[in-house]
Amino acid sequence: MRSRHTDALASPPVTLDLDRALLDGFGLSAFRPGQRRVIEAVLSGRPTLAVMPTGAGKSLCYQLPAVALGGTALVVSPLIALMKDQVDALSARGISAAAVSSALAPAALESALGDLAEGRLRLAYVAPERFKSSRFTEALARLGDRLSLLAIDEAHCISEWGHDFRPDYMRIGEVAARIKPPRLVALTATATPEVQRDIVKQLGMEDPAVFVRGFDRPNLRFTVERAGGVADKSTRLVALVRRAPGAAIVYAATRKNVELYAARLGSAKVRAGAYHAGLGDEERTRTQEQFMAGELDVLVATNAFGMGVDKADVRLVVHADLPRSCEAYYQEAGRAGRDGAPADCVLLFQHGDVKLQEFLIEASTPRVELLRAIWRLLRDDPHHGVNPAAARRQLPGEPGDAQVGTAVRFLLRAGHLREVEGVIEAVRPGDDGPPPAPIDAAVLGARAEVERTKLRAMVAYAYASSCRRRYILDYFGDEDARAIAGCSACDVCLGAGRRALSDEERAGALAALALVERLRGRFGRTRLAGVLAGVDDDARMAECPERGVLRREGVRWALDLLRALEGAGLIEQAPGEYPTLAITRAGRQAMVSEGAAGDRAAAGVAGAGQRPLELALTSAPGAGARAKRGKARGAAASGGRTARGTDASGGRAAGNAGAAGQAGDDCAEGPADPAIVERLRAFRSEVARAEGMPAYVVFANRTLDALASARPSDLDGLAAVHGMGPMRIERYGTRLLAVLRDE
User: Fold this and answer.
1) Is the CATH number 3.40.50.300 carried by domain 220-350?
2) d(C-alpha 567, C-alpha 577), whole Å
3) How many CA atoms lie within 13 A of 579 on its CB side?
4) What does the alpha-carbon distance between residue 622 and residue 723 come to, in Å, rounded to a whole number?
5) 548, 618 Cβ separation under 8 angstroms
6) Residue 253 has what pLDDT?
7) Which residue from 123, 49, 121, 50 is spatially nearest to 82, judged by alpha carbons?
């Protein structure tokens, strides 16, 4: 019933009229879902972890106990702006509160420390790095047993498995062990089951009360729109923001994109502001205040904006770039509709954004080799300490400025570097102060892999062909997820995210599943797409029946198909820096059920086509190839007209050739002969048995009908038939011609 850091409760469990305390202290007449149970657990003295989404009212879960208990509650929070907002709101209600932060002028900071030491504050907000200050720890020691509780807000920052890990948060466990708070509560809006366990471990909570409910936001509608590059996204943003009935927030992955999107919205006469960490404090504060006051229609921001911001009338949150994790996405999307009215959460998804996030992960998780090289550079040549990033060309691999900056910050936090009067210098063995902790390469590698795993989960959300709301609730381990079969409030459940496949698409999907199964998780997505498209020249793949099945469709469509299969949960990525694809149990079941349906269809048995395979595919197969052929035909037609201008007979020849080519491409020279179709189906079944693959993977029904209609007499004629790529012609061409001739 208590933290291992607590020898005895400083006060017995508190019983009070919570409804009266809520009304008297905060002017509220009712608790939000889940708040009462969390508050009761905190008052009982039991270590408590509350995982509640943005807008669920986490702050009240420690503010009400702090007011009711008396004494001083210490609240650890990562952002100075968040502290200020909460202190202002509490002070307006007559509750004594202060933020002990570097943002205070020296006199104000001294006053806040004195109020803390003397117990004159009900709530004292501090950043985690404040525990390194001897003046603060002295004030905390003078407070003594007047400490009523320790609250850790944004507790996911304590976990290396979390999406926003902050090394300074790791000290909080040691602080809790030292000060032994009578009550300990950790709160976060974004923590997977794995992160929850890590928070409990880091804080030394024994037998904690854990609350993970209320993630579902029924008033939010989730949509993923496939988009092109920045220009296409900018056009979509203008349309989305103009349709929004209230304020909007647009999130972008980089400062550059923030500026681009804000400028595009501004040029469309939309009142837009930009917010990112590269702007000065005054400019960011002014922009935020304008947005909160309704003077801006939309705020375009990086993830630097939003934590603790409570603007009730946000009707639209758009992620113009792919976020790095589902935690970040849901936390940011959750800033829409905090008043309970309907709101939209839109992700503009382009798969190329994945590479940007992979680059940012690489930049944010420095390699040990780079860390050591920077330390040696500053040790041997101290004048680089004025601007270490300027010396990056002297570092191995010439890392980017972002990578160098991240590595320097890491070394500063770890104590291997220190800043003295604006100059960064290397800390040498034997220097004054505690020795820096050794750098653990395994830990750094694990951290990078955690980030990549979270990114893969976010990509899976974008490609998901099932309910997006349930995907999110499942991700966070919310108990309510089991009750959701379809939400009627996401693009998938409304029918916009997935569709039944054509025969051609279905055959391609099952061929891809068969290839993934055959290769047993040894290769990644790009390699598998190359095999399916027939461009991989690895001799080991030559005998794979699926090699070249999608040659006509091309590598790009094969990649989209594999991603859609992954989003549908039919294949999955194994962990690692170079992840490979493996088939899932659901994928095997799909192969069996679809295979049976395909065999029934081939035999003309009733019941074929039931429970069709559905995927969220972005394009039809062969779209790119058809476009190229269309351009080629247009060029040929243009050439023919030119030729007619100089040589009529040549022009007619060119025109006739173009017409013949078009007719051959359409493969419609006559009705399908039923007898030929039956011979082709028998041949297909024979090949399928011999090669150990479903019949529909060998040839789709549509291809058989096209063959029976066109009745080609040579290999060139086969090449013009729909579904007959070079690989199929090479493998089956001669035998097919014999079947067509009934030999």
Assistant:
1) yes
2) 20
3) 17
4) 10
5) no
6) 92
7) 123
